[in-house]
Amino acid sequence: MSHTAHIRSHRKPRSRTASTIAMRAGVAGGILSTVAVAGASAAANAAEPVTQTLELPTLTADLSAQVAQSAEATQLAAANYQLQAERDAAAAAAAKEAAKDLATAKKAEARKKAAEEARQAAAERASRDSQRTTLAAAADTGSGSVSTSTSTSTSASTATGSAAAVIDFVRAQVGDAYVSGGTGPNSWDCSGLVQAAFRQVGIDLPRVSQDQSTAGTQVSLDNLQPGDILYWGGAGSAYHVAVYVGGGMFVGAQNPSTGVVEKPLSYDPPSGAVRVL
Question: If one looks up domain 127-275 in CATH, what number appears?
Answer without folding.
Answer: 3.90.1720.10
